[in-house]
Design goal:
Layout (H helix, E strand, L loop, with lengths): L1 E6 L3 H12 L5 E7 L3 H11 L3 E3 L2 H8 L3 E4 L6 H10 L3 E4 L7 H9 L6 E3 L7 H12 L5 E11 L20 H4 L2 H11 L2 E9 L10 E8 L4 E7 L1 E13 L3 E6 L8 E3 L15 H14 L8 H19 L3 E2 L8 H4 L39
Parallel strand pairs: 1-2, 1-4, 2-3, 4-5, 5-6, 7-10
Antiparallel strand pairs: 7-11, 8-9, 8-14, 9-10, 11-12, 12-13
Helix pairs in contact: 1-9, 4-5, 8-10
Length: about 375
């Protein structure tokens, strides 16, 4: 049996990871869970029949020596916890976003020593996505031409009551980083590497430091063009992807997960997936466990997951500099390599009731002080 531990026992662990693990109970044993909230982790373990509860990750790693750790904690903790698990000899499956910057991602990859860190990008693993990739690879759809990638979701103000949400130093970004990343990853899996991106990002309404809407135009290495929207202001929620090839159009409409019925193709004769597997945590976990048993690098680790974070970085860099960004620009001397806001707050900060305004480094601006209004010439 493959020994698995859960780090972070919030909603994503309960709603997504535990059902996926239950589907693999024939080869997986969940041996422990970790959370800084000792009451919550004990309740979680009691509900799911997990034998050991811990409030410290390193203590759990030393005592339980799990084979794989699922990281379900807030984004700012990911890089440190993933590296600790890798050094302890465990593989890692980390919730998105994998970390807060390309610099952190490269530190994670550097810590892999026969152990691997994969990221939850589950939409790639459904039967619809696998079938479309096969059609793309065989050339049956023709040349990629145009992509539309829309994540129109809704998160009200109460969603941001969690103190780590909506902040650059703890969440890493807004819907571009935390919500639309799944759809953008699926788009990249079909159209491949990008070369240039132009973008805008703005805070339209929500009381956060980060953006609540972003839009972008992208040119891919294969010559195709794409348009991207990420929003948390959309009352009718939808995740929409459209891929136009020179022989057919393929579309996907869903919110948080899809089945075959959520896909349409203008060439029905080509659209015949051999099975119906949802784009879910369960589908990716099955592939991850197969890779673990074969002791080979799993999908969506290393350069696979870095490519998606690189696209997010390029979008922010283009939005906040007001200039086109090429993929080759995102080198170690680029400020966006180290922070997705480029090291300076690029958006006007709205005050949350009872919460001081924060700069990117996390330091609060003293209450009562206001920035001077520039005089018009």
């Amino acid at each position: 049996m493959i020994r698995v531990a859960i780090a972070g026992t919030g909603s994503v662990a309960a709603a997504c990871h535990m059902p996926a693990l239950a589907a693999e109970r024939h080869r997986v044993q969940v041996v422990a869970a970790v959370d800084v909230d000792s009451v919550r982790v004990k309740a979680f373990c009691g509900e799911h029949g997990i034998p050991q509860a811990y409030s410290g990750l390193n203590e759990m790693l030393a005592r339980e020596r799990p084979d794989i750790v699922h990281i379900c904690t807030p984004p700012h903790a990911h890089a440190r916890q993933v590296v600790d698990c890798l050094k302890a000899g465990a593989w890692v499956w980390c919730e998105k976003p994998p970390c807060l910057s390309l610099a952190e991602h490269d530190r994670i990859t550097a810590a892999e020593r026969g152990t691997f860190a994969a990221v939850v990008f589950q939409h790639r693993f459904g039967s619809g996505a696998r079938h479309l990739r096969r059609l793309v690879e065989t050339g049956e759809l023709g040349r990629p031409m145009v992509a539309l990638c829309v994540t129109a979701w809704h998160r009200d103000r109460s969603y941001y009551a969690a103190p780590w949400r909506g902040r650059w130093d703890t969440e890493g970004g807004g819907p571009t980083m935390g919500h639309g990343i799944h759809q953008m990853d699926l788009m990249l899996s079909m159209f491949g590497d990008w070369e240039e991106i132009r973008a805008m990002a703005r805070r339209v309404d929500r009381p956060v430091e980060t953006e609540d809407v972003s839009v972008a135009s992208v040119r891919f290495a294969n010559g195709a063009m794409g348009s991207v929207l990420n929003s948390v202001l959309s009352p009718r929620e939808e995740s929409y992807l459209r891929f136009d090839f020179d022989r057919a159009t393929v579309e996907l409409r869903h919110v948080n997960g899809y089945h075959n019925d959520d896909w349409t193709c203008s060439r029905p004769d080509l659209w015949q997936p051999p099975d119906d597997v949802a784009g879910s945590h369960a589908a990716q976990l099955a592939a991850l466990l197969d890779s673990y048993e074969r002791r080979e690098r799993p999908a969506m680790s290393g350069k696979d997951s870095r490519a998606t974070l690189e696209f997010v970085t390029g979008l922010y860099a283009a939005a906040f500099t007001g200039r086109p960004v090429r993929r080759s620009d995102l080198t170690m001397d680029n400020p966006f390599y180290h922070r997705l806001d480029g090291g300076t707050t690029p958006l006007t900060v709205r005050r949350r009731p009872g919460v001081p305004l924060r700069r990117p480094g996390g330091c609060a601006r003293p209450a009562g002080r206001r920035r001077p209004t520039p005089r018009r010439r």
